[in-house]
Amino acid sequence: MEINFTPITSVGEFGLIEKFNSLASRFANPKVLQTIGDDAAVLRPTPGNLSVITTDILIQNVHFDSSYTSMRHLGQKAAAANLSDIAAMSAVPTAAFISLGIHSNVSVEMIEEFYDSFTAELGKFGCVVAGGDTSASPVGLVVNVAVTGEVEPERLATRSGAIAGDVVCVTGDLGRSHAGLMVLQREKKRYVEAGQPPDFTPGFEGYDSVLQKHLLPEPRVELSRSISEKIRVHSMIDISDGLISDMLHLCKSSGVAASLDEEFIPIDPVTRRTAKEFNEEPLAYALRGGEDYELLFTIAENDFPKLFSLEGYIRPIGRIEAGTPKVTVNRKDSPAEIYSDFISYQHFAKRK
Amino acid sequence: MEINFTPITSVGEFGLIEKFNSLASRFANPKVLQTIGDDAAVLRPTPGNLSVITTDILIQNVHFDSSYTSMRHLGQKAAAANLSDIAAMSAVPTAAFISLGIHSNVSVEMIEEFYDSFTAELGKFGCVVAGGDTSASPVGLVVNVAVTGEVEPERLATRSGAIAGDVVCVTGDLGRSHAGLMVLQREKKRYVEAGQPPDFTPGFEGYDSVLQKHLLPEPRVELSRSISEKIRVHSMIDISDGLISDMLHLCKSSGVAASLDEEFIPIDPVTRRTAKEFNEEPLAYALRGGEDYELLFTIAENDFPKLFSLEGYIRPIGRIEAGTPKVTVNRKDSPAEIYSDFISYQHFAKRK
Predict the structure, then answer these.
(1) Neighbours of B10 (CB within 10 A)
(2) Could you report the predicted ipTM of this complex, rounded to two decimals?
(3) How many percent of chain B have pLDDT more than 70?
(4) What confidence tens digit (pLDDT) does each residue in B168-215 have?
(5) Beta-carbon separation of A61 and B138 below 8 A
(6) Strand stretches in A88-247, DSSP E
(7) pTM of the entire structure?
(8) Which residue from A34, A50, A97 is facing B43, i.e. has the nearest CB?
(9) B348, A139: Cβ pair inside 8 Å?
(10) Which domains are delineated in chain A?
């Protein structure tokens, strides 16, 4: 396979911006009146609706490892992570803003591939790139994404509305992204230990579902809107740090506790098999694994049957209870586990 | 002077976020319903108004030199640059979003100083930090800022509304920031060439106005609103790249030409003196110097007298004419200069 490497200097900043505009202009949103080309983008919010805005920074070798994250994957993931935050508010995404810091070891082709998948992933949900900034970077690639959306006030779902008696629900299945990450890291290690041979074939067969979930996650934008169309969502968060961590965020914001049942926590068969290969409990992947981008939400018990007709996979996994914020996981064959502190990845954590 | 250096690891990501929240919570805006602590911020736009959004990335050693940019200056400048873009749309800033990539050579004190001046500068104009993201960075400091604001549709000023016959106006004076930069670079060079002695005194006396303008620029948020309250602004841009470059942006967006008169271009006496010390024409600083963050706008001729009552310094500097986009500068003592291509700084420019 031949790989073209056109240095960014051969097109310059303005040349790059032209390429971006051409890729971004494949999509449009009638609420976005003006995109790139002025001091600021101009949007016409629907009168009466609320605006929501989220932002994320991705830095090479901190958030992603280029040895197994292609530019296409990175572009989709950068969009998906932010769209997932918009979905977690029950909102509809409208416009995205992207800043890129680009080192000279990044080619025009790489950036185009990134931007192509980034804009396409946004475009699936009617969201358009409306602004951005492009700069040189002394090291690696820096990506900052901000996405804005809107939501009817009565449909807004925050982290703070859970009440005792609520059913805790989750979309999709959990731990799958972490299983994919473990396979990628294992194959990278094998490749490095074999001396990086040009004919190396990574052992990816049979892992499609976990690799796909890790590399090309899909935000639950449409499912979130379908849920809030049918019922009133009391509280919602997206699962990006892992079930325990995000459940705790929701409990602390709402001032409640959650009691979850192991047997209801959805885990895909390939996730189970992968966890066992790594001598880990599949449940641990589901509880602690990050980047699933599923929705975790709480609703009144008698609303649950109204979700049966929805396509997509929604499962009740426990209950909200009154009390000090904590998460109890009721195990089938062992004592219940209780979590009251965050266990997710923390930047700048003190090394032991 | 004793300088405290508390490593970020001693407070961790969540400790840092707590410090940020405490600094940010000094300011509030009734349109911002929910700030940090959920999947996204929630804003209530004024029904009927348009939203504007701008974003900027700042990377250490690309956009700022830490040897003469203190964290306090950087914080204000990061806010001011984005507020200036909001002002250039005639809009009122509402909320800001900040992503920080922080290397381990940056202390808690440095980041607090940055955040303190960043939030204070926004707060002056009623703008609050409503969200952000914090990450480790392998090298230096990375700052991404997005600011949103709102504007009545009839007051929106874009780059594309200039028409033949318009008077071209500018706020404040030009080239002053560039003069400040030249002094800073000269003193840094002296310091380095002297072997970086601990008792080095930079020669800053008499340069207050140019240094202040470069290090602590003030966006024209209030003046912009006062202008659009009195008259209909046909087109507007902020001067961040230099007069010629930004005038050309406006001309290209509007499909018109501009004819400017040297004698009307406002230049501060200290800017003049500084340019001469560097054996440069003061006019060159005004035409090409960046980061003045003044407003450049065009209005109908008979509206100009309506601006007389405004505080602040507004000057007519030329005319909009029909024709191919270009900028003519009519000189007093030499032939007119004509610019039709951008001359501003371009990232990834090809080295000759």
Answers:
(1) 11
(2) 0.89
(3) 95
(4) 999 999 999 999 999 999 998 998 899 988 888 888 989 999 999 999
(5) yes
(6) 92-102, 128-136, 141-151, 167-171, 235-239
(7) 0.91
(8) A50
(9) no
(10) 8-155 (3.30.1330.10), 167-339 (3.90.650.10)
